[in-house]
Amino acid sequence: MEMEEYIQEWRQYLRDPTAPAGHRFRAFVLNVAAARVSLILAWTVNVICAVNTLCAQSMREALVFVRILVGTVSGVGAMLATHRKYLLVDACRRMEHVAAGIERTAGRLPVIRENARKSVQRGRAEVNFFTVYGSCVIVGTMYTMFSETERWAEVACRWLPVDPAQCAKMTGPAQRVTSVMMMCGAPAIVTSLLGFILPVLLVIHRCLAHLQTQINYLTEVGPCSVELARLHSDLLKAAISVNRLLEPLVAFYLLGAFVLPLLSTVDVVLNGKDADQYALVIAPVVLIVFVPICEAGDKMLAAHEALAGCAYRGPWLDEQRFEVRLRLNLMLASRMRGALFRGRGIGVLDRGACRAAIRGWFSFLQALINLRQGRHM
Prior knowledge:
The chain is mainly alpha-helical.
């Protein structure tokens, strides 16, 4: 019952018309992420950062705007996901149906209830953590933007065939407008990433893995009924709906979860205490965001692959012929790859992918440390 209510909360968050009204703060977060103004601001910030990168007077100044540019491109992917959230709503409806079916079938089993309670508690804790962390990222980003100077107006005055003083008067208002747009766009982008898409991504995949684990348990300890097969079919359809939304956009999210921390680590390692606030709050993202993403994908993979073993250990001898056929079909369904958490051109995000990425990240970090030590010798 607890898992069913938790999934219903996320239906409320995603504004499912068939669900009751949800929490006002979450509704505000979704409004910010889904607003067309936010998407326009994000694309505008992309253009401004690209121009400022080309006009920067030093490599360090250019890297600041490159990092902001990478973060905004990742945020665009999160905003695009809100315009197809009907796929998430469909997945949540199916997951709620599966959770209710498991509750009817074996809701009194203490193992089922305890696992559901732990899964819900962890999901709530993750959402609260990313809300707080997202606020810190917004503060660090705004502080860095206040500290940096936009150079595009200076470069324009060098190239335009007008008096520099007259040019400064012409470009001054436009530069103030671009600064305001960056200040407004940055909070919307961070809210879309850490307030919407990341909690949704983690919570939904953890719920899918949890429900799959419960179905595995019921397959092992009881008969393989038609109702159980239907629940598993609905769960697979929910996972496929989520993948239809996220698979084309995973590359955007990995820009913010892996590439951006690499660039921020360069600033932190090479400049130490002089690193900007944006780099300091973004550098640990590879551990705070990327690792949980891969962990959620690994749980999905492990839960699906465990179905074959659980079905094999079930009570074959006590079942009728059609139940045996259903059990065999479930064993075959455990090898279905379309329901796993993957990215287009990237593959499945699991523990192996996380291990390889973290190994490369630490190798890169060690190379930077060696470079800094060699520079100070």
